[in-house]
Amino acid sequence: MTTQYSTSTDGTRIAYKTDGSGPTIMLLHGAGKTKQDWYTKGYVDRLREDFTVITVDIRGMGESDHVMDAADYTIDKLCEDLCVIADTCGVQRFAVWGYSLGGNIARHIATKTDRVTALVVVGAPLGNATDSRFDQHIDGLVEKWRPIVKAYKDGMLSDKEQEFVVSGGILVWSAFFAAMRTWPVIEPKDIQCPALLVVGTEDNGMVEWVKLNRETLEGGRYIKTELVEGINHDQEFTEIDKVFPQILSFLQNRLSYQAVSG
Asked: What CATH number is associated with residue 41?
C-alpha cells in the first residue's frame, strides 16, 4: 500500500497507510520509529485479516512534515492529526494502539473524543507525559543541542551542516521534547473507553510506575493492565509473539461487541 496524506488545519501533512478490512485501528509508533516498523515486525500482517489498519507517521517523523517549533507539537495538534486522517478515510470511530511515544499520544486522544472505541498503550504510563528521569534526559539533550539550534536559526551554518541538523532530527526533537512538558496529566479516570495497558516485567520504569499507581489504576473504570513476563521496553515492540496475543484478544472482544451493539 502506498503512502497517503492528510492535512491538518495548521497545514502540516501527515503520512499514513491503510490495509485490511473491518473495524478500524490506528497504530502509533515509538520515538525513532516510523509507520513502516509496524509492517517490518509483522503487526500489520496479523491485523489486516480482522481490522482496517491505519499506520501513521507522527508529525515530525517518517514521511510526515518535519515541523520544527514547540508550538507544532501541542497534544491538541497531535490528536487532531489522527482525527483528520480518520475523516479523510471516511471513518467515524476507531481504536488506537500506541507504543512508547505513540502510547503517550494515544492516551490523550482517548480523553479528547468519543470517536475512540478502544485504547491500547504499550510501554507508556499514564500521569505526566514526562517524569523526573526523562526530564533530566531532555535537559541534557537540549543543552547539548542549544548552540546548534541557535546557529541554525541564525543562519550561521553551512549548507552541509544545515542538512545534518535537519536530517538528524535535532530541530524536531528539540521542539517535540519542549512541547511534551506542556501536555496535561492523564489519570485513569480520564479514560472513557475500554483500555489495555501492556507492560513488560523487565521494563523497570514501567513496572515501578504500575506498582506505585496500582490503587489509582484499579480505580479506572475501563482500564486493564497486562504484565508480559521477561521482556524489556524495546521488546514490548519487537517480541510480537509475546505481546500480540493479549492485545488481539482485547481488541477482538471490545470491537466485535461494539460492532454488534452499534
From this structure: 3.40.50.1820
Residues 77 and 120 in one domain: yes
The verdict on 110 and 196 lying in the same domain is yes
In a shared domain, residues 37 and 124: yes
Strand partners, 54: 18, 26
Query: Total structural domains in the chain?
Result: 2
Confidence of residue 145 (pLDDT cuts 50, 70, 90): confident
- Calpha distance 160→164 (Å, rounded): 6
Q: Are residues 196 and 134 in the same domain?
A: no
pLDDT one-digit tens code per residue, 201-233: 999 999 999 999 988 887 767 899 999 999 999
- Among 148, 182, 216, give the residue marking a domain's end: 182
Which of 147, 162, 182 finishes a domain? Answer: 182
Residue with cell 492516551: 107
Alpha-carbon span 95 to 85, nearest angstrom: 13
Cα(126)–Cα(113) distance, rounded to whole angstroms? 17
Q: What is the pLDDT of residues 118-141, one digit of tens each?
A: 999 999 999 988 877 778 877 888
Residues 114 and 151 in one domain: no
Mean pLDDT for 164-177 is 87
252-262: average pLDDT: 61
Q: Are 63 and 133 in contact (CB under 8 A)?
A: no
